[in-house]
Amino acid sequence: MATVTGTTLTYGVGSAGGNREDLADTIYDLFPDQTHFLTNLQKTKASSTLHEWLGDTIVAPGTNINREGNEGEFSSIVSPIRYANYTQIFKKEFIVSDTQERVSKAGRSTEGARQSVKQMRELKNDVEWAMVRNQLASAGGSTTGRSLGSMENWIGAGRTASATVATSHVLATAATGATTAAIASKVPGAVTDASAGSAGAITAANLELALEGAWAQGGTTDLIAVSASVKATINTFTGVATRNVEIGRTAQAVITGAADVYVSSFGVHRILLHRHVRTNVALCLDSTLWAVSSLRDFFMERLAKTGDGHKYAIRYEGTLEARNYLGNSKVSSIG
Predict the structure, then answer these.
(1) What are phi and psi for residue 127, nearest 5 degrees?
(2) Structure pTM?
(3) Residue 121: enclosing H or E segment and its boundaries?
(4) Nearest Cα to 28, choosing from 144, 107, 114, 136?
(5) Is residue 235 scored above 70 in pLDDT?
(6) Is the pLDDT of residue 109 over 80?
């Protein structure tokens, strides 16, 4: 049936004609943030931009047979090793006009309050990202900021990139062209990935080698942090597991295609799916050997008003404390 001629329709009137808009008073956020290490690692306090700590190891065991009544043969005492990391300044700054704060808004009462929460989450995301990536420690200068040495950078310190037990702390499945860091001036140098075109896959055998390398140095790997693609690879490891899921008689069947715990000869390791770990890297970590050290904890301040708006700054200054990097390892198939 045709519409009667002259009928006033919503298509012709619209909001400009006086119809009110239908806008839900809710903002549906999608925040892919990930702050496991920033949240869960032990917290310490830094008192300088170069934060230092001590690490030590024991001499490898060997034959220790002595004659009765023998005079003592005293060993030289070896001092602990001094390590350091630079504090990094993280910030988020934003400005909201006075007009924006006065107008009626959907989903929030004030723009300043909403942005304070949102950008604090973004800032924490940035801190977490810096800690788990392959970021080089730097003292900075008059034109550049200081940067903290990341987990990958510390694990790479003094390790050869190859698939052998003795050097598996930085296990590059295709090590051609790969270089690792050396400790100089208390902080590690740069870690370089394998050359393009030589990438290999992360396998159960290589993961076992990395876990063995950390265990041999005294580490107890409790966590394996991985990206989505590496997690998918680990899910395909056959191992010795049989998956059984008990369901009720009337319930739908459950498909289990993921592993949350990896059991090796060197312990039980939780698999952590992490958004910020590099795509083809598995970080095998002893959580007790890491800490977050803060020089200036997270804070927000309102800056001087110079225009028709309010200025805000959220800041954090801190670093990653690699208490003893030797007890950790990584597997990499970067190419």
Answers:
(1) -65, -45
(2) 0.83
(3) helix 111-132
(4) 107
(5) yes
(6) yes
